[in-house]
Structure formats: C-alpha cells, structure tokens
Amino acid sequence: MASPLSTSSTSSTGVQASRSEQSQAAQIWREFKKRRLAVFAAILMIVEIMIAVFAPFIANDRPMAFRGVNRFEFQQLIQTVESLMAMANGESRQESGAAKKVYPVLEKAQSLLETASAEIDVSKSGGSESRRQFEGLIRRIQDMQKPLGSFPDQTSALPPELIQGIQAILMDVKTLKKSELPPLLSRWYFPALAQLNGIDFWFIAAAIFWPLWWFATRLSTFAYRQPRWVQLLVLSGVPTLAAGIWVEINPSRLDQTNYKQGVLTAYDFSRTAPVIFDVVVWPLVPFGIDEYDTTNQTKPPAFSLKEPQKLATPWDRPHWLGTNHNGVDLLTLLIWGARISLSVGLVAVLIYMSIGIVLGALAGYFRGWVDILISRLIEVVICFPTLFLVLTIVALLKPSLINIMIVIGLTGWTGVARLVRSEFLRLVNQEFVLAGKSIGFSSTRLIFRHILPNALAPVVVAATFGIAGAILLESSLSFLGLGVRVPTPSWGTILSEGRTRLLQAPWQMTYPGFAIFITVTCYNLIGEALRDAADPRLRGTR
After folding, report:
1. Can you tell me the mean pLDDT for 445-463?
2. How crowded is the C-beta side of 213, counted as CA atoms within 13 Å?
3. N- or C-end of the chain: fewer Cβ atoms within 10 A?
4. Domain edge (last residue) among 161, 185, 209
C-alpha cells in the first residue's frame, strides 16, 4: 500500500507533467480564463466586432428584405436604356470605328431590356401588350447586332440604314419611358444584401464560417488533426471564394431607390408609389449614414424627451442617441464608425507586427552587424514622436483610410521588433535550436518554424495594446481633420463634428467618446491579462 506522501508526490509530478505537455498557447488560455474581467472585455470586443461586420443589416435605410414591386428601379432601367441608345446614336455617326464602339453599347441595352421585360406581369391587364413591346425592341436590337458583329471594316463608318435603325429604336425607347408603367411582378428583393461589396461579403462570410469551423474542430477530430497550413488555407480560402462568387453574381451598382417612400399594397395610392411592399423587414436601426433629415437636426436622444419624436416616414424609428447637425442618426454613425475605427486598429497592427517580427527575428538570430544595423534603425525611428511623425506624413499625403493604416503601420513596428529581438537572443542558444543547426536546417526554417512560435507570446500581448493605441491615434487624426472624409463615419470624425456644439448638443461628443473609452479599456484589459497569463511566475496566482 502506497503511503500518502508518495501518492501526493506522484500526483504532483503527474500534474506538472501534464502541464508541461500542454502547448504554451493552451497554458496561456487556461490562465486567461481565470481573469473574469478580461474575459468579459473579450466578449464585449467580440460583440462590438460582430456589430461592425454586420452593420449593413443592423443600421441601414434599405430594407433587409421585402416582397413587392420596385417601380423606381424599373424606371431607372428604361432611363439607362435610353442613355445607352443615345450614346449608340452618337457613336454611330463617327467616320471611323463606329461598329466597334456601337456593338457593346447595344449588347448592354439588350441585356437591360431583357431584365425589364422579365419584370412585367403578363397575367394582369396590359401586361401582355407591354411584354410584346419590349420583346419587339429586343429583336430589333438583335437584328442590328448581326451586321455590326460581322461588319467587314471595323474602322469605317456605318451605313445609313443602320444609323436610321438606331435612331428609330431611340425614339421608341423615349416613347416607352413617357408611357404608363406596365404591371410588374411581385417578387422578393434584398436591398441591404445587394449593396455589399466584395470586402463586406468576405468579412461576413468569415464571421459566419470561422465559428462553424471552431465548433467542427471540437466535434470532429478530422478537422482538428489537419496540418496548420491546411487549416489556415481553409479559414482564408472559404471566405475568399465566397466573396469572389458574390462579386461575380452581384456586380456593384448604385441603388438610388428611396425605400422610405414605399407603401404597403393595401394603401389606395400604392399604384403611384415608387416601391410597393407586400411584406417588408427593416433593420433594427432603419437609418442610413447619408440620410439627411432637415426636420430632425440636432435632436436629443429619444429616451430624454418627454414627448415622442416626430417621424418623417412610417418606416422610421425614434433616434435613441439623437441626431447630428445634419439630422443623421447618431446611433447609425456609431455603428458604421466602428467599422472604420476597428479596421484601422487591426490592419495597422497587422502591418507593423509583420515588419517588427521580421526585423526583430533577423536581428536576434544573426546578431553581429545585422543586429547593429537594425538596432540603429530602431533607435532612429524611436527618436521621432509617433504622433508628430504620423501628422507630418498624413498632412503630406491625401487623407484616406488606406494612408492612415499604412502610416500607423510604418511608424509603430519598433516596439514589436525589440520584443522579438530579445526573445530570439534568449532562445537562439537553446538545445532545440542547436539540434536543428546540427541536423542542417536552414536559417529560414529555424527562424520561422522553430524559434518564432516560441517567441510570439509577448508579441500577442503587445498587439492588443497596439490595437488600442492605433484606435486612439486614428481618432486623434480624424478629430484634427486628417482622417477619413465625410460622409464616411469614424468615431474621431463624429467627435470633431460635435466639438463646435458641445453646449448645444453634448450627446454628439458623449457617445463617440464613450465608445472610444470602452474599446480602448477593453483592449488594455485583454492585453494585461494576456501579459500575466504568459508570465510563468504568475501562473496559478488566480
């Protein structure tokens, strides 16, 4: 029978062995979870990032979905066809190269007419006749495209009969535009989804796919056992593929429809409304970032009013955080501004982490003149105050979101480089590195596959603090007028617009300032918790 002392010693040794077998990331995560305030801050940041990613479906002046008729879009199609035919008419009169220029214009006009023809409801009165008119125009354009496509001399002028045919189609399109609109089919529309570009769709696809992949790794060992490069390829490739397919099937276009003027089918004046809704689903905050309301300029938050706010349309909702001097909903600006502020922080930190990791790794591994050269470069960059250096560069360049990201990334890498250099100086003489050298591993393999993974813990901690600093720096630049331009919102821009109305409308500075404070505080809490969790001397203290 084993003694209690030996049993205790054995169990203690087993615990230490199990802990040593865990990866460093697993140990840091285990210690991080013990800090409840940091966990709460991390959850809050995840929620904030999700709100920023899904902003088009949370705050938008376009419906998320509706079933009905978009008469305005149909009118825009006819006007576009008229413009194309007028362009074709002008190009057809040129002395040279007319056929080469007119053919693609007619092809585009035919495509739009086919789209418009498919929208006509032939089951209603006048629908069949209107469909025949559109089909007649389509056939005439097709008949003109045949001789143009096989025109013997693409550089010569068009014959008079083709020019007259284009003029006749143009006149018929003008007559069609002035006539009464035909009955249109009622179908489903998704305006908020249709306005997404490739970058928006990539982030939305990633926000949906990455949690699903995380759950898959917990439920199935197949995904978890795949090599790391395969997992990274899947995590980046699936959203990229989805975004590419989206851009291909949904070409970017400017939707000028004023959906707030839409009415339900039951209303008597629905026949003349630009949009008719059978069923409609609006976002939680049905306002746009460029939706100016002159009747609600500088309105205080709705919860502070004794009387309910006057709404401009039946689809509007109260302005819960008030409006700015242009009548734009402040909550909408904060939600969309989070996309700019958070993206600047994340991208800028990604840029300077990449630079700092590479330079710090080279300095710490090779030492000698490489270390001296990189260290002197770090000291030179550190000599310049970051804010003034960024202000100088941004003032010389055109203020834009991309320039701000690049400038912050190019000026903030020194701290990361020094951290990585110190870690490499500590690790380069350890046994696993010496064993790799004796086997014949290349310097690139030793640096990036063996030493760097063991030196990333302090870099991750620095990254969280760096994101907070980048958000503050972007807000400062926007506040000084050197950030993104209106109407693109950012928290710093909202602050800058509200500073002249601090006494009349204090909410214009209170809420964006609070958003910046909460975000920066949460990132700092996460950074401090990661720093403590990565320190072996502090593990198990909570």
Report:
1. 85
2. 20
3. N
4. 185
